[in-house]
Amino acid sequence: MACTAIVGINWGDEGKGRMVDLLTEKYDIVVRFQGGGNAGHTVINEYGKFALHLLPSGVFRKGVMNILGNGVALDPENLLAEIRTLEEKGVKITPENLMISDRASLLLPWHRKLDELEELRLKDKKYGSTKQGIAPFYSDKYQKKTVMAGELFYPEKMKAHLRDLMEWKNLTLKGVYGAEPVTEAELDDWIEKCCKPLMPFIGDTREYLWDAQGNGKRILFEAQLGSLRDLDYGIYPYTTSSNTLAAYAPVGSGLPAAEITKVVGVVKAYSTCVGEGPFVCETFGEEAEKLRQAGAEYGAKTGRPRRVGPIDLVATRYGVQVQGATELALTKLDVLSDMDEIPVCVKYELNGEETDKFPFPSVLEDCKPVIRKVKGWKKDISGVRTWEDLPEEAKAYVNMVEQAIGRPFVYISVGPERESIIRRGV
Ligand code: GDP
User: 25 by DSSP, 3-state: which?
Assistant: First the structure.
């Protein structure tokens, strides 16, 4: 049985969505195992262009079961809106192709509100949250102060549970932030409008995955964001609030005994980063603007311009190691086609010394990038489909990155469309 994880190696937005969309042809089940609707995968296929926030990227493939595992931040309101948007474009979402873990905790009506209030309080010290309630949600989950999706099947018990949580949370809303408390009527309304329509999708995904594994089904685990946003191994505290690593997939998916034999790491041909936090290889000014425009680097969820820079071999090597990536996909190589010379961040300089070791987060802001320039290819490569047809300079760029980070690129993506891909030995 094939158990594969597909994960981001950098700061997120590597193009995981387009890779999952491509790879799902070989899998029976796609599972999202962490994170919430705070980032977006962009997928372009025969139905159109989509920004998926919570739904697994396998929803476009017939016969693929998509699962939202217990590790996700399940925001019923946003999930319903996302399902409706897809259905308007002709993509059917039914219990036949979507299942939600009964053990997934619910993002509650106050989580978004709290996220916003806290970012306001932090002012210029803010973390750059997307204000989707993800950090308050995960803190509450680990405090055991939220409810699980399966509780919807026990309405009286759930109501009582929610009422207790509301009383507790209103102490914070009123006392700490001086904000309006949440009312019981608001909660009832939220259950009716946002939660009940999801009930047909909710079930025991652990059992489903266990049986599927026994029957030899092929399972793909899909992560949100990337290595450097992982709560434990990323650029803390500018991380997300969940584990973005393949190692978390078994726990967060509902198949704790899963043996993941393949980890496909997605690397972008240059660097981008959304929001706050240290970003050693960052480029500014005209050079940055050119790259941002060439790569259309604006957030899928927020529309915010992304911070950009050259590929960072120090951070990428670290990202590959913490993910345990067994093979890699390089995306957006076409975006570099106009450049005479391509800068590459090969090392960091810290306290006057060069290092290729990714440092402890506290000193990242003291690091400077050591840049080497390599020759560009100055040719449109978006129509190239084989390794042999790539210009020599492009091959040299790919080989150089591969050697530095220690794992092979088996896919090279040269455009956002499903077919804009070069396969090497797969
Ligand atoms: P994800 O969250 O990792 O899936 O990444 P995003 O969806 O936020 O960002 C990837 C963006 O790049 C999307 O707009 C994709 O359509 C686009 N994209 C993905 N691969 C390529 C590629 O090889 N070339 C170009 N030009 N665009 C790509």
Answer: helix
